[in-house]
Amino acid sequence: MLAREGFSTIIVVFIFSGLVGFAASFGPVWLQFIIYPLLILLCGLIIYFFRDPDRITPNDDSLIISPADGTVVLIQEADEPEYLNEKVTQVSIFLSPLNVHVNRNPVSGDLEYVKYYPGQYLMAWEDHASELNERAHFGVKHPSGLKIMFKQITGFLARRIVYNIKEGDELKAGERFGIMKFGSRMDLMLPGNVEIKVKKGDKTVAGESIIGQIKGL
Fold it and tell me: 113 near 126, Cβ under 8 Å?
């Protein structure tokens, strides 16, 4: 299955490839042997990037589920004055261009806060990317009353984040909510009563991997 957010990009790439291929058909044969494989590779890569596989989310409301495929690049204490208004554990997941880029809700609950920030395009694994890059912040209140925040953050290659949720929506853990294009980062801001279940360097799968567990549930 392909992510619907990628249809426009896929169509543009296919039209471009068709036009270039048509133009190349009037050129020498040796040039066609170079151009045609490159165009096929380009079309294959764009389809691969926008793949959207089904995922099986653990049926446990106490779990914080990974919102993104990628690699855990940062786990640190941080201040979160925007929504939680307390010290939190920040878990950052870097998505390479080869990862699935469809994003999924990390928890079920009420979406109380959404804010989009335009910004720069630092490398997504840099610490300051969370503060300076184009990004969207989401604050969710879990049925237990626990609040968490997660952030879509663009990277050096990414130039657009897409999300289809808004304040007042009721989220369900593991459901798709958006996509980040061509390399990016996802941050989770988790309060002290969440036990972190990953370590730096771990690989994550959106909708399936367990990032943390709410204590006492």
Answer: no
Q: What Å distances lie between residue 198 and 1, 153, 194, 206, CA to CA?
A: 28, 20, 12, 14
E-state strands within 23-131: 63-65, 70-80, 86-95, 102-104, 109-117
- Give the burial string for 68-104 (b: 16+ CB within 10 Å, else e): bbbbbbbbeeeebeebbeeebbbbbbbbbeebbbbbb
Determine the Cα–Cα distance for residues 29 and 148; give it in Å rounded to an integer. Answer: 59
d(CA 198, CA 89) in angstroms, rounded, equals 12
- Cβ contacts of residue 8 below 8 Å, gap of 6+? none
193 three-state secondary structure: coil
pLDDT digits (tens, 9 = 90+) for 24-70: 999 899 999 999 999 999 999 889 888 999 999 999 999 999 999 99
Token pair recorded at residue 26: 């009037």
In three-state secondary structure terms, 165 is: coil
Distance of CA 130 to CAs 31, 50, 136, 140, Å? 45, 24, 10, 18
Contact partners, residue 97, CB within 8 Å, separation at least 6: 49, 157, 182, 183
Active-site annotation, residues: 184
